[in-house]
Specification:
With 306 residues, the chain is of the alpha+beta class. It has one domain. It is 23% helix and 14% strand. The chain is built from 6 helices and 11 strands. The protein has a 3-stranded antiparallel sheet with strand order 1-2-3, with helices on one face. A 3-stranded antiparallel sheet has the order 6-11-9, with helices on one face. Strand 7 and strand 8 form a beta hairpin. The N and C termini lie far apart (148 Å).
Length: 306
C-alpha cells in the first residue's frame, strides 16, 4: 500500500472512533448543568405554584362564593307570599285555600300576659281610655263616642289548648253580657286563634287573605255598602273569621278561606247550627250571620241580626 492509501485508512479509522465516543448508553443520565440549575427554579416548585394560582383564578370566576339570601315573606302557616295570586293593590284574590291552612290549627302568639292555667275564666271591663282608643279605628266620624265603648280583657282557649288573654272594644251597654259569652266559650274550650284590637293599619291594603282575628269594634262601613256596620258601634263580633268566612256567590272573605265554606267538613274553630257559640250569643239576644239567606257570614254575631 502506498503512502496515500495509508493516509486515507488512518482518516477513516479516526472518524469511526469519534462517532463511537459520541454514543451514550440508554441508561445513562446527562450531567446537570450547574449554571442552568442555579438560574431556573426547580421544575416541581414552579408547576405547583403555577397550578395554585391558576386554581384560585378559576374558582373566583367560575364558582362564585354563595351570597346571603333574604328570607321570603310568608303568611300564617308558613305559606310563601309569592305563591298567592294578588290584585293591583297586592291583596289576595279569592283562590283555593293553601293545603296547610285547610285544617288550620295555629298556636296563639301572646300579646297580653296569659292567665294561669288553672281552668278559671277571668274577665275585666273598663272604660275605653284615650290611649287604648288611639290603638283602635275610632275617630270623631264614628257613630259612637268613646264614652259609649268599653274595653274588655277576657280569657280564651287557643288551638294550642292553652289559656290566653284577649282584648275587645264593645258597646258599653253590652259589655257584661259579652264577657259572659266568652266565659261560656272558655268553659267549653272552644278554640280561638287570636283576639286583639283592630287598628287603622289593619284596614289598609294589601290584605293577604289569612286573617283570623276575633274582634268587635271596627269603625267601617258594611261590606259592599255605604251605611255604618254594627261593628262601628261595638254591637257585632266576628269569631275566627278564617274558619267562619263571609260567603256571597264567588266572594269569600278572607280570600284564602274558601275551604271553610264547606260546612260539611267539621273542623275545630268552626261555628255550626245550635253549637255552643250560637247558643251563647242567642242567650243574650244576639243573632248569627250563618242564618242569613242572601249570603252567609259564618263569623258574624250582632245585637240586631244585621
Amino acid at each position: 500500500m502506498g503512502s496515500a492509501g495509508r493516509r486515507r485508512l488512518f482518516q477513516f479509522a479516526l472518524v469511526v472512533g469519534l462517532a463511537a465516543c459520541s454514543v451514550v448508553p440508554s441508561n445513562a443520565l446527562p450531567e446537570p448543568d450547574p449554571d442552568r440549575s442555579a438560574a431556573v427554579p426547580a421544575t416541581t416548585t414552579d408547576i405547583s405554584e403555577s397550578r395554585t394560582v391558576d386554581r384560585d383564578a378559576v374558582n373566583s370566576t367560575t364558582v362564585p362564593a354563595p351570597s346571603p339570601t333574604t328570607p321570603q315573606p310568608t303568611i300564617r302557616g308558613g305559606v310563601p307570599v309569592g305563591v298567592i295570586a294578588t290584585d293591583r293593590t297586592g291583596s289576595a284574590r279569592v283562590q283555593s285555600t293553601p293545603f296547610v291552612l285547610r285544617d288550620r290549627n295555629i298556636d296563639t302568639i301572646d300579646l297580653l300576659p296569659p292567665p294561669p292555667d288553672d281552668g278559671v275564666y277571668r274577665s275585666t271591663i273598663s272604660p275605653l281610655s284615650p290611649e287604648i282608643g288611639r290603638r283602635s279605628t275610632w275617630n270623631e266620624d264614628c257613630p259612637v263616642t268613646m264614652e259609649e265603648l268599653s274595653y274588655l280583657q277576657v280569657s280564651f282557649i287557643g288551638f294550642d289548648d292553652r289559656p290566653h288573654t284577649g282584648e275587645l272594644i264593645v258597646h258599653v251597654e253590652h259589655a257584661e253580657a259579652i264577657a259572659g259569652v266568652f266565659g261560656a266559650l272558655f268553659e267549653a274550650r272552644f278554640p280561638i286563634e287570636e283576639m286583639r284590637i283592630v287598628g287603622d293599619a289593619d284596614l289598609v291594603p294589601p290584605h293577604l287573605g289569612d286573617t283570623n282575628n276575633t274582634s268587635s269594634f271596627v269603625c267601617r262601613r258594611v261590606t259592599g255598602g255605604s251605611r255604618f256596620s254594627e261593628h262601628a258601634s261595638g254591637l257585632a263580633i266576628d269569631i275566627n273569621p278564617f274558619h267562619n268566612p263571609y260567603v256571597k256567590g264567588r266572594v269569600v272573605i278572607p280570600a284564602l278561606s274558601g275551604s271553610f265554606g264547606d260546612r260539611g267538613w267539621d273542623r275545630r274553630g268552626m261555628i255550626a247550627d245550635d253549637d255552643v257559640v250560637v247558643r251563647a250569643f242567642a242567650a243574650i239576644g244576639w243573632k248569627w250571620g250563618g242564618d242569613w239567606r242572601s249570603l252567609k257570614d259564618y263569623q258574624h254575631f250582632s245585637h240586631n241580626g244585621r
